[in-house]
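Hi support team,

I'm opening this ticket because the web form for multi-chain structure prediction keeps timing out on my end. I have pasted the exact lines I submitted so you can reproduce it. The total is 234 residues across two entries, so I didn't expect it to be a heavy job. Is there a limit I'm missing, or should I split the entries? Thanks in advance, R.K.
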Amino acid sequence: MAIKIWYFARIKEALNCAQEQLELSDGEIVTVEDLIELLSQRGEIWKTNLHDEKLLIAVNQTVATMQTTIADQDEIAFFPPVTGG
Amino acid sequence: MIRIQQKDFDSGEEYRALRARSRSPGAIVTFCGLVRDVSDRQSITAMELEHYPGMTEKSLEETLEQARQRWQVDGATIIHRIGKLLPEEQIVFVGVSSAHRREAFAACEFIMDFLKTRAPFWKKEFTANGSHWVEAKNTDAEAAQRWRS
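Hello R.K., no limit was hit. The queue was backed up. Here is the completed structure from your submission:
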């Protein structure tokens, strides 16, 4: 399956990555938590930023949790608490 | 009406537009947020606003919908600027028209509280010592929390 991942603000800068496409084999990941574990294998910076207790997650532009399931063509986003207004 | 834009807005024009498209308003409340020039006792030289295109609009639409369910909202406008802004520039506009002032005041405040805690915008402040991402405030979360009852 193919998914698109967005990173914003502090997390985008820390990971030096704004957006990426991932090709995954079927069953490689089921939930957001699985995706985080997969990305964390890239190194300490990824692990620390994606395990930040304040990290917010969105799947298809709706706030999600670690247990939210991910499907083919989904759009996942990782970002810190929002500060607009 | 929801707009995310880089360019400045004219709040007088927005008020007139909201008034013109409202059916029978007895009250119009507008709020305008400006970029502060001082934060944590440091002078701010500029601010940059990032957002999540698509989710921002979706989140603001949901906020408007919730406001409509709670109060009698006739018309509503939300404008939020993005990109680089200077101190004292306008950053956000919320306008609500309603038959009665209480409804308009409450809906306007509700929209701002939800926008600050739900809409995916992030501020980066620039000072003489460099730049930093603004931390989310507990007081904003508490302000949004009180609408739960």
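A quick check on our side: The longest strand of chain A covers residues 2-7. Let us know if the file doesn't open in your viewer.
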